[in-house]
UniProtKB/TrEMBL annotation:
InterPro entries linked to this entry: Chondroitin_lyas, Hepar_II_III_C
Highest taxon listed in the record's lineage: Bacteria
TM spans (from-to): none
Compartments reported by the entry: Cell envelope
Pfam families: Hepar_II_III_C
The protein, known as: Heparinase II/III-family protein
Segments forming domain Heparinase II/III-like C-terminal: 408-565
Organism of this sequence: Paenibacillus profundus
Length: 629
């Protein structure tokens, strides 16, 4: 897409020279900064004051080595992120005030970051360097991963904003900054075509790393590189790489990594496209493209209510989305609904104060919020959401009883088990009622060395046995792109929303499953309560009594003879489901949650309700109806 539209010759003609490129007001341009609201300026000055004369966290070699030794990446990254969190707040505080009070601490922060032997996160070192597992980096071979890109962009934007003041305060700092950004980022970006995230190699994985790394490299390139010929050449290279990411999506814009990664997939693509737009005075712009517009709206389509989002793949059930960016994305593509959704979320996050809790600070996104947020007209009290969404590319269905959080919410998925951030979850589904979770996807725990290793599917949250899918003859779904759905059909007419998939190919042959067709239906009734229906049509090679249906629950389900009652957090019955007690034995397992990330989403525990066939099964048809009250 990008390369087809924007040639090297066009970039040479349209790219604004580095000395004239000002995507946001520099701190020395005081009129723009002084026009910001007093409460915003006071907030960021107060944030910076908390780090005045503070000690910078140390990053000893043994802490970096901790990942290889224990599989824990958190301990190093906590200190690593703390440095960057401090620096970004000091930079914004000085930009707001601009009297030099924060400059010594900013110099200390930038110098400390430049002194780090690597900006690469420990968990990525061997993967990116393509060498055997090392516990410490080779400083003669700097690599670009997510951490290196984020750090480089932070340093580049910091110097962009305060370069005049820093040059006067400490003339040698600019030379050091340029040296580190060239050696660690620009030289490597020019030299390498084999970083897997560039996606230049055939059959290479394409995921959020592509736009995330490219957008940060672009920022460094556009802000720092003074050789205009090299600058144009590397911008053109970024277009080639970003094209691979865009091409990996279907026209409907569905993200197989899940909503948690939208903020670093389509949203990072937005970061890159905004840089290209501003650096060419609008000559490079694809915001009118249908696929780009659909990629933007994916996050809206996956919204359940409040902080709840459809959490297939490595997504948490509760997300803090980049609301300001969403509003801006909606504005530039001319989508009023997406813009309103972003502004709603922005207000729920207490506007600019949401940055207090951000783990990975992004100066580009902060500056965009300060200077590029669309005007907020009077917003409706409740956001209107689409009733029916079908993303054929990733085979995800969303159906709402009404256009908001109230009423039934149903999401179901097909696809395959070779997705990026895959869980073995073909045929799984999620049900909420009035914003309360009933049948759920547990999501993902804190990343460790196991998460992206051959041991990934030893983690219970990744296994199909802990999703809302069956197991037959003790066999669960297998991982790999060949394990997928067949005969997929979606229909919606405003009254009935329905998805039908055969999930038999998601299981190894020794499961004995010839057919397992699931039909998920949200039936909206005009003169009676709406309901959700799950139908199963099953054909096994041989009769088997080892047939189990698993149902994951946020709250403890209560079984009363032939009825399963589902409650909300307050203990009120939200829904019930009848079943044939002569056909099924019921067992409820309490899953104690020890992982911090899972506990943040669900509390102390989850529940798995397992229905085991009492009689041999070979050819059967079952129906389960979920009703309110």
């Amino acid at each position: 897409m990008l390369i087809e539209r924007y040639s090297l010759d066009l970039l040479q003609e349209k790219l604004i020279p580095s000395y004239a490129y000002e995507p946001f007001p520099k701190a020395a341009r005081r009129e723009s900064w002084l026009r910001l609201a007093d409460d915003i300026r006071a907030f960021w000055i107060a944030q910076g004051e908390t780090y005045l004369h503070a000690e910078w966290p140390v990053l000893p070699a043994s802490l970096y080595m901790d990942y290889v030794r224990t599989g824990n990446c958190t301990r190093y990254q906590e200190a690593y992120f703390a440095r960057r969190k401090a620096l970004v707040r000091l930079v914004l505080a000085e930009s707001m005030e601009y009297n030099g009070r924060f400059l010594d601490d900013i110099v200390n922060g930038i110098w400390a970051v430049c002194e780090e032997s690597t900006w690469c996160w420990p968990a990525h070192l061997s993967d990116i360097s393509r060498k055997e597992v090392y516990s410490l980096p080779d400083i003669d071979e700097p690599v670009i991963d997510l951490g290196a890109g984020e750090t480089a962009a932070l340093v580049a934007w910091s110097y962009y904003l305060l370069g005049e003041a820093l040059d006067a305060h400490c003339p040698q700092l600019g030379k050091r900054v340029r040296r580190e950004l060239h050696v660690r980022i620009l030289d490597s970006y020019e030299r390498e075509d084999n970083y897997w995230w560039m996606s230049f190699q055939p059959d290479m994985l394409v995921n959020n790393w592509n736009p995330w790394c490219n957008s940060n490299c672009l920022a460094v390139l556009l802000l720092i590189e003074e050789d205009e010929r090299r600058r144009v050449s590397l911008v053109h290279k970024s277009l080639r790489s970003l094209d691979r990411f865009i091409a990996s999506y279907k026209e409907d814009g569905g993200c197989d990594e899940g909503p948690a990664y939208w903020g670093r997939a389509a949203a990072s693509l937005y970061d890159a496209l905004q840089l290209l737009h501003s650096a060419t005075d609008g000559a490079v712009s694809v915001f009118d493209d249908t696929k780009i517009r659909n990629m933007a709206k994916y996050i809206l389509h996956m919204h359940i209510g409040g902080e709840a989002y459809v959490n297939f793949a490595d997504s948490a059930a509760k997300l803090s989305v980049p609301a300001g960016l969403i509003a801006q994305f909606g504005h530039v593509i001319g989508d009023a609904q997406l813009q309103a959704f972003g502004l709603h979320a922005y207000r729920q996050q207490h506007e600019y104060r949401h940055w207090e809790g951000e783990e990975i600070p992004s100066l580009q996104r902060m500056l965009s919020e300060l200077f590029s947020m669309p005007e907020a007209d009077e917003l409706e009290s409740e956001l209107e959401l689409p009733l029916d969404i079908w993303l054929a590319g990733v085979e995800v269905m969303v159906a709402r009883e009404r256009g908001g959080a109230q009423g039934w919410f149903l999401a179901a998925k097909g696809g395959h088990n070779g997705e990026s951030h895959n869980h073995n979850d073909i045929g799984s589904f999620i049900v909420y009622a009035d914003g309360s979770p009933l049948w759920i996807d547990a999501g993902v725990g804190t990343y460790t060395a196991k998460t992206f290793s051959p041991e990934r599917y030893s983690i219970w949250t990744m296994q199909s046995g802990y999703h809302n899918v069956p197991a037959v003859n003790g066999i669960e779904q297998a991982d790999g792109g060949q394990y997928r759905t067949r005969k997929v059909c979606h229909e919606a007419d405003g009254v009935v929303s329905r998805l039908t998939v055969d999930i038999a190919p998601a299981y190894p042959a020794d499961s004995g499953i010839r057919q397992w067709t699931r039909t998920y239906t949200l039936q909206r009734e005009a003169d009676a309560p709406s309901r959700i229906i799950l139908e199963e049509v099953v054909q096994l090679a041989e009769p088997s009594q080892n047939v189990v249906l698993n149902w994951m629950c946020a709250y403890e389900p209560h079984v009363h003879r032939s009825v399963i009652a589902l409650q909300d957090e307050a203990g009120g019955v939200k829904a019930h489901m009848s079943y044939d007690e002569t056909m099924w034995d019921i067992q409820v397992e309490t899953i104690a949650l020890e992982d911090e990330k899972l506990r943040a989403a669900w509390g102390d525990s989850l529940y798995r309700l397992s229905m085991t066939a009492r009689c041999p099964v070979q050819s059967e048809r079952w129906q389960f109806v979920l009703e309110r009250g």
